[in-house]
Amino acid sequence: SYELTQPPSVSVSPGQTASITCSGDKLGDKYTSWYQQKPGQSPVLVIYKDSKRPSGIPERFSGSNSGNTATLTISGTQAMDEADYYCQAWDINTAVFGGGTKLTVL
Amino acid sequence: QVQLQESGPGLVKPSQTLSLTCTVSGGSISSGPYYWSWIRQPAGKGLEWIGRIYTSGSTNYNPSLKSRVTISIDTSKNQFSLKLSSVTAADTAVYYCARVNPGVGATYLDIWGQGTMVTVSS
User: Fold this and answer.
1) Which of A38, A92, B25, B26 has its CA 20 to 30 A from that of A8?
2) Within 10 Å of residue A55's Cβ, how many Cβ atoms?
3) What share of chain A is helix, strand, coil (3-state, %, to 5)?
4) How many Cα atoms occupy the beta-carbon half-sphere of B16 within 13 Å?
5) What per-residue confidence (pLDDT) applies to B106?
6) Are B49 and A96 inside 8 Å of each other by CB?
């Protein structure tokens, strides 16, 4: 079965750029979505189709996908961005999630 | 705007069947090209996709759960449902329903319910 791998944790200082990676076999051939989940809340879509932002998502969130790695980038990270982030892709009509990355802003 | 709300028993006994319903409000479940999906998350762990259903009744399931899962849809009630049979403690989780937007060339889960906690225990 298809697998997506994320680092368990990433730390960033306020105002700096955070990068969260998601790796999978030929992931660049698929579209990747990213979801933000804060404690006690439902996931929220922050990036779809590798790099598109849904309405209401700040411009500091961006994404890319090439080769075997998709990357979520948060520029000018704010304290409110501290959350768990999950990548997701589809493999033959099956949704696959990465294990999640806890972003700490300190 | 479309909203999703999960409902169902919060406690299920081992070996029994877990049953949940997701009610869609603010729009018709039949309108648009959308699929409707279930996802779960054990406490402190990541997201696990369970499956999805189209308004036609066509389904796709997570291969690891396929033998125990049934997702159905009732367009007259604007609801879709999840049944998970032969549950064990490992099925204890927060269960989310979500809308699957096929988009243009990409598919993503754009609207999520608030989630409902289900505990499997005798």
Assistant:
1) A92
2) 4
3) 5, 50, 45
4) 13
5) 82
6) yes
Q: What is the pLDDT of residues B80-107, one digit of tens each?
A: 999 999 999 999 999 999 999 997 778 9
From B1's Cα to the closest Cα of chain A, the distance in A is 13
Q: What is the pLDDT of residues A67-84, one digit of tens each?
A: 999 999 999 999 999 999
Q: In the beta sheet, which residues pair with residue A36?
A: A44, A85
Predicted confidence (pLDDT) at residue A63 exceeds the cutoff of 90: yes
Work out whether strand B11-12 and strand B3-7 pair parallel, antiparallel, or are unpaired.
unpaired
CA distances from B52 to A56, B49, B102 (A): 26, 9, 12
Interface residue ranges in chain B relative to chain A, Cβ cutoff 8 Å: 37, 39, 46-49, 52, 60, 62-64, 96, 101, 103, 105-110, 112-115
Amino acid letter, A41: Q
Q: Which residue from B48, B62, B115 is facing A42, i.e. has the nearest CB?
A: B115
CB contact under 8 A, A86 and B47: yes
Closest chain A residue to the Cα of B62, Cα to Cα: A94
Q: Which of B118, B100, B119 is nearest to B109 (CA)?
A: B100
Distance CA B82, CA A33 (A): 24
Report the distance separating Cα A2 and Cα A90, nearest Å: 9
